[in-house]
Specification:
243 residues; alpha/beta; 16% strand
């Protein structure tokens, strides 16, 4: 299937995910392309990934992983990295509390583009998608609508946050795709961004692919592979809808 080019006529993007490192599995390459083009990109994470390192107590892991996310974001030109309060890794639940929190940040940051993770049961490669990803991906869909409607969560207006109906594009990463962005020139920045999650990566199984190997699989365009099988073109893909 031929994918459409990702639109360029926008200024501000907000990337929303469940955990530190979720954005670094591919989307950071697109972010690097956007920031290099002068676009404003912010990250919003629902949790600090505190349950993600089996050998580290959640209190310590939360601090470590928050800093690793900030380090990884900086590699692709992002300085604004926000974390929701009151939501916990591994036990995210969909519903009004999370939707309100997301809508609050959308109203505050006023993005033109929102990118999040797929809420499909499986990723494109067939691997089962975990619960936190599914919850966030679906709640973002409804939070974008709520952010633009003054009669949904009217208490946000009382906080000084006017409705923001300005989200023009909403995308989900990880399953089906409608659009693509060539990120060949930004592949190395994406690798550095994932490598910045040093303690998290060190705790993964010995046979887990390295950041470079993993991103080659995720972003590599198979049609560009040379005789050695390595792709010469890299692309980020997303299921994108106009609003």
């Amino acid at each position: 299937m031929t994918l459409h080019p990702f639109p360029q006529d926008w200024h501000r993007a907000l990337c929303i995910v469940a955990h530190p490192d979720d954005l670094e599995y591919g989307t950071a390459a697109a972010v690097a392309a956007w920031t290099a083009a002068g676009k404003d990109v912010s990250y919003l994470l629902a949790t600090r990934g505190e349950a993600g390192i089996d050998t580290m107590h959640p209190d310590e892991a939360a601090t470590v992983r928050e800093q690793e996310e900030r380090d990884g974001a900086r590699e692709v030109g992002v300085e604004v990295v926000e974390f929701l309060e009151g939501f916990h890794d591994g036990v995210l639940e969909g519903g009004l509390e999370l939707r309100r929190a997301l809508a609050r940040e959308i109203r505050r940051l006023r993005p033109d583009v929102v990118v999040t993770q797929t809420y499909a049961d499986r990723f494109a490669g067939g691997m089962v998608n975990q619960a936190d990803h599914r919850v966030v991906g679906l709640e973002v869909l409804d939070a974008v609508a709520a952010a633009g409607n003054r009669w949904i969560f009217p208490e946000l207006a009382e906080e000084g946050l006017a409705p923001w109906p300005g989200v023009r594009w909403l995308g989900w990463v990880g399953a089906g795709a409608t659009h693509e962005l060539d990120v060949t020139e930004h592949f190395e920045a994406a690798v550095r961004s994932l490598e910045a999650h040093r303690q998290y990566n060190a705790a993964l199984p010995d046979d887990f692919p390295s950041p470079r190997q993993l991103l080659t699989r995720i972003l590599g365009d198979p049609d560009s592979a040379g005789q050695d099988g390595r792709p010469t073109r890299f692309r980020w893909t997303v299921d994108l809808v106009a609003r």
